[in-house]
Structures are given as C-alpha cells and as structure tokens.
Amino acid sequence: MSSSTPRRPSKKTSKYRPHNSGLIAKSSAVDTDFTGKLVDVTPDGAAINLTEGILRARYRESMSTASPIVPGQVYEYKIDLWSTAMSSSKGTRSA
Question: In this structure, what is the dihedral angle of CA atoms 23, 75, 60, 31, given to the nearest 10 degrees?
C-alpha cells in the first residue's frame, strides 16, 4: 500500500511516532512469519527503507503466549514497525 503523491509541494515535516502495519491474511501452514516495512518513496521512484518489523503468526495476540493458527483461517495481524523519526522532502510519499 502506498500513500498518494501530493498534488502540490508540501513543507518538510518531522514525525516521531509508533507505526503499525495492519494485515489481514491466511496461511496454508500451521505457523508463518509476516513482515512489514515503512518506506519513503522519492519523486524519482527511489525507495528508502525507514523501518521494518516482523511477526510470527502464533504470537499475534501476545508476545509471551503462543496461539497457534488454523491453516486456511483468516486472522488479523498488527506488525510493530517501531517508533520512527523522519523528515519528508517535498513530493515524497510513504509506502
């Protein structure tokens, strides 16, 4: 998923906040790992990785207690992308 490209130039902004990547998925396996990234995309198409996260499906509800998944069943996952501080230049978008 990507944000839209700004229609007009915007001022530089600084952000510091926790980010999460929401995912609704199913797997044919009894466990799987899902990853997410926050990427800054420049007007010329270059992608700069800002932060990333990973979540093992069995720990989707709690990092301390495993909860196995049923293959083929749909679950919601929230992948922690950690807190991130960044400055966005004019015309960039997030992906």
Answer: -110
